[in-house]
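Supplementary Methods. Inverse-folding protocol.

Structures were first reduced to a discrete structure-token string of length 376. This string, shown here, constituted the complete conditioning input.
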């Protein structure tokens, strides 16, 4: 009996050693190595996406080579470039790209790389375009066809500097449908771009809860992305494009306590909004609470041996207290870095912006720079 116990113990030690070796091998995989190029980033929004004007004039003036130099000088190593696929596609039923549109994008990507920055090519459609993926096979087939052409176009670029992000914030709640679509998209990309690292995300708007409910695809060269805007009552106060309850909110505090939330004036808030705000105070959102959110997703990734990337986090600045905004940004950034998760703040120059542009002058927000752990 004693020899049998020793035999079992020896096999357990061998198995544990194998697991440790496998974990070390996964940690040194190509995806983990490429993730080191995505440590500190900024989102370039309202430029090639989220705009009704994709003319040469606006593209050339809205964001340019001077911006890329500034971004690099602040200590960022990459940008996440939002790209609406619709202006790139020649016809709805076709997967061909408009020559003038893709040439314009190529020029911008080249200029970003020339500044010493890596580029995440983030496919960032309007809501309706994404919503179609829930509704039938034809939109999904067109999505696959687009990625075959788009990834094929960029397949000759440096895979250490160019990353393919499948889809920004999938809107579908059906986790299994999205996992199937994403897995097949990876397969189609691999047919034309076998060396590039792909950034995958979860259903349910790409948030932490969605990622925790899913599983990785069968491809080792993939980084998994999530977005962090919790608590939305603080980060989206005053925003008019999301839940109607946010519109009337001004001066929501962070960190939250029952006392500082109860001190707010609720005159314009309905009963539902008041209840959510009371919950926000009682939940005591602070650095510890945000750290717990990040720790949960970090554990998910560690158990599966995959690298993580936080592609968006930020605070709508029009109605938030500037110092509280900086504190939240610092708390999220610190939590991410404590788990060795790379990040890209939302965003460079619009309503969540790091900089303000006026009369040809670009002004950097020093509080946000400090919150991001960078130096001006």
């Amino acid at each position: 009996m004693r020899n049998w116990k020793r035999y079992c113990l020896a096999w357990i030690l061998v198995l544990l050693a194998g697991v440790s070796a496998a974990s070390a091998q996964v940690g040194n995989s190509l995806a983990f190595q490429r993730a080191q190029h995505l440590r500190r980033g900024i989102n370039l929004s309202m430029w090639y996406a989220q705009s009704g004007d994709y003319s040469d004039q606006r593209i050339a003036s809205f964001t340019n080579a001077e911006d890329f130099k500034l971004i690099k000088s602040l200590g960022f190593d990459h940008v996440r470039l939002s790209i609406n696929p619709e202006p790139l596609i020649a016809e709805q039923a076709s997967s061909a790209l408009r020559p003038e549109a893709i040439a314009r994008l190529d020029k911008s990507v080249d200029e970003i790389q020339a500044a010493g920055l890596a580029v995440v090519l983030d496919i960032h459609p309007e809501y309706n375009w994404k919503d179609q993926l829930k509704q039938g096979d034809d939109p999904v087939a067109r999505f696959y066809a687009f990625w075959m052409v788009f990834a094929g176009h960029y397949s000759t670029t440096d895979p250490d500097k160019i990353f393919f992000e499948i889809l920004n914030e999938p809107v579908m709640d059906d986790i299994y449908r999205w996992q199937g679509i994403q897995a097949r998209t990876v397969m189609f990309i691999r047919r034309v771009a076998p060396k590039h690292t792909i950034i995958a995300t979860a259903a349910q708007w790409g948030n932490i809860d969605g990622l925790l409910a899913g599983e990785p695809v069968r491809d080792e060269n993939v980084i998994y992305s999530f977005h962090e805007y919790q608590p939305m009552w603080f980060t989206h106060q005053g925003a008019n494009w999301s839940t109607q309850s946010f519109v009337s909110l001004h001066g929501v505090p962070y960190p939250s306590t029952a006392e500082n939330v109860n001190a707010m004036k609720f005159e314009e808030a309905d009963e539902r909004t008041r209840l959510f705000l009371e919950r926000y105070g009682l939940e005591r959102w602070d650095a510890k609470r945000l750290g717990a959110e990040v720790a949960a997703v970090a554990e998910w990734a560690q158990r599966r041996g995959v690298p993580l990337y936080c592609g968006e986090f930020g605070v709508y600045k029009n109605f938030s207290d500037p110092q509280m905004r900086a504190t939240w940004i610092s708390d999220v950034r610190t939590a991410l870095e404590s788990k060795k998760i790379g990040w890209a703040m939302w965003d460079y120059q619009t309503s969540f912006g790091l900089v303000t542009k006026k009369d040809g002058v670009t002004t950097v927000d020093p509080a946000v720079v400090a919150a991001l752990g960078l130096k001006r």
